[in-house]
Design brief:
The chain has 89 residues and is of the alpha+beta class. The protein has one domain: Winged helix-like DNA-binding domain superfamily/Winged helix DNA-binding domain (Arc Repressor Mutant, subunit A). Helix content is 47%, strand content 25%. It has four helices and three strands, in the order αβααββα. The radius of gyration is 17 Å and the shape is extended. The protein starts with a helix and ends with a helix.
């Protein structure tokens, strides 16, 4: 389960099939781990239906609970910088 948490922390929101492919765990083991982590409140999960080549792919979309990733480097929009400056005043 630690591998799932580490992967989600590094990559952000991912499908269970993407987690399985990246960590080398089977899809069944990832789903069991995700269900346990969800019960402990460490991750948030929602059902996701996507279509690939016209076929329905049903999966679980997972992300770390309460984790806010750092801002991306680079220029920020004018609205973002205005809001940021007002919140620090």
């Amino acid at each position: 389960m630690q591998a799932i948490l580490d992967y989600l922390k590094n990559t952000g929101e991912q499908l269970d099939s993407e987690i399985a492919a990246a960590t080398g765990l089977s899809l069944a083991n990832v789903r069991l781990g995700v269900t346990d982590l969800k019960a402990r409140g460490e991750i948030m999960v929602c059902r996701s239906i996507r279509y690939k080549d016209g076929k329905e792919v049903d999966g679980m979309l997972c992300r770390i609970s309460g984790y806010i990733p750092p801002a991306a480097p680079g220029r920020k929009s004018k609205a973002y910088t205005l809001a940021k400056s007002r919140s620090t005043d």
